[in-house]
Amino acid sequence: MFMTKLTIWITGASAGFGKATALKLAAEGHNLVLMARRADRLAEVEKECQMSGSNTLSLPADVRIQHDIEVAASKAVEHFGPPDVLVNNAGLALGLDRFDLANPEHWNTMIDTNVKGLLYMGRAAAKYMIETGKGHIINIGSLAGKEVYPGGHVYCATKHAVEAITKGMRQDLFKFGIRVSQISPGLAETEFSTVRFEGDLQRAHNVYKGMQPLTAEDIANCIHFVIHQPQHVCIHDIVLTPTAQATSTLINRTGQ
């Protein structure tokens, strides 16, 4: 049990990595601020965390809207004080079409969420962390931030941006005692593919067919490990994939 109670902000907390991370940290009694667009789903996660004994505040917010983030950050600080940790998790992929056939609205949504949303949220937390002289920002990247695959042009670009922003944040903020880390998962079975393929459950299922993907809990375990390092230790990046995945396109599937 980690004895120091932390105030931890988590974006994209209504499902997937964010929800799994919230539940894991709630079990240790940390103060949690949960942010996501879907207020009903967020309220359910808030209740689950409170049942574990955590003081939890849910704040419906869209990371794509800077004003939403500034208002949510202000409310969070008013309720719990400045954040110790930000889990900058909100993100998504849309489409897997060839570049010339892709939907530009998908590009806009991915760039606004994965890049601009990450920036807005990171800036909002960093301001308070600088004032206290400590803090930890954990950006959720992807194996797609290390490689590029067919149909992944803009999604991969946004996750390459997360890697660059993470490095830039670390260089700008380390002098204030702020740690900046990245978690970069490969194939993980959450709502990710269902969102990517706009509700086509069969196509989403086929992404993980014949192999054992990562789970949301696997990523939550990594986030937990990074947070719980001593103050003098900063883990820059953790890259994790299923054992059956060597690269974005090299996957060992049973029967193939």
UniProtKB/TrEMBL annotation:
Keyword Oxidoreductase among record annotations? yes
- Give the residue spans that cross the bilayer: none
| Superkingdom per UniProt | Bacteria
Q: Which UniProt keywords apply?
A: Oxidoreductase
GO MF terms on file?
A: oxidoreductase activity, acting on the CH-OH group of donors, NAD or NADP as acceptor
> In its keyword annotation, does this UniProt entry include Glycoprotein?
no
In Pfam terms, one family for this protein is adh_short
User: Record's family?
Assistant: Belongs to the short-chain dehydrogenases/reductases (SDR) family.
The protein, known as: NADP-dependent 3-hydroxy acid dehydrogenase YdfG
